[in-house]
Design brief:
Length: 476
């Protein structure tokens, strides 16, 4: 059974899509095709691209547009209110968890999370033990991946598929998609009360400034990028420009007396908050990878001294590891004393003997993922895999079971999508961006809707042929 976001059953259109569906029925196919070509031309002219590195071993990258779909994903106000409450709750609990694992480890002492799941985790950073960060906030910018699956009665249920707490990307596409829709179809925005998203950069800057080291009234914020060859460089430059702050590389920064400074034409300028878009390993060659030329020597010492804030904090990856994901509902109850609003997808941990046996017996039915994997790589989608692919994956699984989790193959909801043959259903997910400042958790209404453009595909990642849609949250 499939849940379609626009169509309830047969010719019945869901209430929140009715105005849009009437408009869509009146649009000639050639007009929609012309609008799609116009969008592609504008995106290419503006330079909204990302790098695709083919297979992981080739090292060769090509610049590519993320395909943009003209048909929006529409969410009614009451659904968004519940999603927003669940996102606030979840991200708050995750931040509490990260603080706990670098301090008292109360959740380990309570027997809820096994110690090896933290201490043996590749993303756990012993350098952060006992370090107090402003407001106890570690993940200031979180991208939480949400999917909807059909229930037997035809309704749909939202599930959290993944928590991205390190350097989540994609928000620039959310913003540019909205600008494009307003440019191409201004009449639609006169017919619908659509919650705005354009103020996201203002909220982001407000969040970053709020977590500056204590005693600083007018903090200097910068965006730290690995450089122009990074796949998300467009987004780094875009967000810096939208916030009105400097975009810097590691070579633009230096540390003196445990303070971070930026080189400028007017001399050194102290930096108080760094929105970093590179992984922990590359931040400081004196503390992590000595061969890194992307970071700033001495940055960890300045951070540990409390003289600069890193967003997101070093060591946040311990909480978005897929092996930790299964414990998040228990975190909500442990830290907040509340029942989780958003559901997890049922998960088998292959490090557990009984779970591992079940997974091996049901590989053709399951989705199996590497605990550190990303971008849709290192995974098996059982129902879409050949016998040979399943057999090869089984070998990897048996060789290192602790490196994998498994989940049922959810039938992700579909949304009508403008493809070469016309309008057809395609599977989608949603990545809202949650901002956690010193005093509040906030977000814009919506997020990045990703769409699997290949018929039948459940993989929405842009690196594997996925596209994006504008996400409309309708106001009451």
């Amino acid at each position: 059974m499939m849940f379609d976001e626009m169509n309830a059953s047969g010719p019945v259109v869901r209430d929140h899509y009715r105005t849009y569906e009437r408009w869509l029925q009146q649009q000639p196919g050639e007009v929609m095709q012309a609008r799609r070509e116009e969008a592609e031309m504008i995106f290419r002219r503006v330079g909204i691209t990302f790098a695709v590195y083919g297979d992981k071993d080739s090292g060769e990258g090509t610049e590519r547009l993320i395909p943009f779909d003209l048909i929006p994903r529409v969410i009614p106000a009451h659904e968004w209110r519940e999603l927003e409450a669940g996102l606030r709750q979840r991200v708050t609990a995750l931040n509490r968890f990260i603080h706990d694992v670098y301090h008292g480890q109360e959740i380990v002492k309570a027997g809820i999370v096994p110690p090896e799941q933290i201490l043996a985790n590749a993303q756990y950073r012993p350098e952060m033990i006992g370090v107090d960060v402003p407001g106890g906030i570690y993940s200031h910018i979180a991208g939480i991946d949400i999917v909807r699956a059909a229930n037997p009665d035809g309704s749909g249920t939202y599930y959290v598929l993944e928590d991205n707490l390190r350097v989540p990307s994609g928000v620039s596409y959310m913003l540019e998609n909205r600008k494009m829709m307003m440019r191409l179809f201004p009449e639609l925005f006169a017919q619908h009360r659509i919650a705005p998203v354009a103020h996201y950069p203002d909220l982001l800057l407000e969040t970053l400034r709020s977590v500056a080291p204590g005693g600083i009234n007018d903090p200097t914020v910068v965006v730290l990028t690995p450089g122009m060859y990074n796949s998300a460089y467009f987004e780094h430059a875009f967000l810096a420009q939208q916030m009105g702050v400097e975009l810097v590389e590691g070579q633009d920064l230096f540390v003196k007396d445990n303070f971070v400074f930026m080189r400028t034409t007017r001399g050194p300028k102290r930096v108080d908050v760094i929105y970093r878009r590179l992984d922990d390993d590359f931040l400081d060659p004196l503390a992590f990878r000595p061969d890194s030329t992307l970071g700033c020597p001495g940055l960890l010492a300045a951070y540990r001294a409390g003289n600069v804030t890193l967003s997101n904090a070093i060591g946040t990856g311990v909480a978005d590891d897929k092996s930790i994901y299964a414990y998040v509902p228990k975190m909500v109850e442990f830290y907040l004393g509340e029942k989780p609003i958003l559901n997890n997808v049922p998960t088998w941990q292959c490090r557990e003997t009984e779970d591992f046996k079940y997974v091996l017996d049901h590989l053709p039915e399951l989705v199996v993922k590497e605990v550190h994997g990303a971008g849709g790589y290192g995974m098996l989608v059982g129902p879409a895999a050949s016998k040979d692919e399943i057999a090869k994956f089984r070998e990897h699984l048996i060789a290192n079971p602790t490196n994998y989790i498994a989940q049922p193959t959810l039938s992700l909801s579909t949304c009508p999508t403008f493809v070469e043959k016309g309008i057809a259903p395609r599977h989608i997910d949603l990545r809202p961006f949650v901002l956690s400042g010193r005093n509040e958790v906030q977000m814009v209404c919506g997020g990045l809707t990703r769409v699997a453009l290949k018929e039948g595909s459940l993989v929405v990642n842009s690196s594997q042929g996925g596209g994006t849609k504008d996400t409309w949250v309708l106001e009451d």
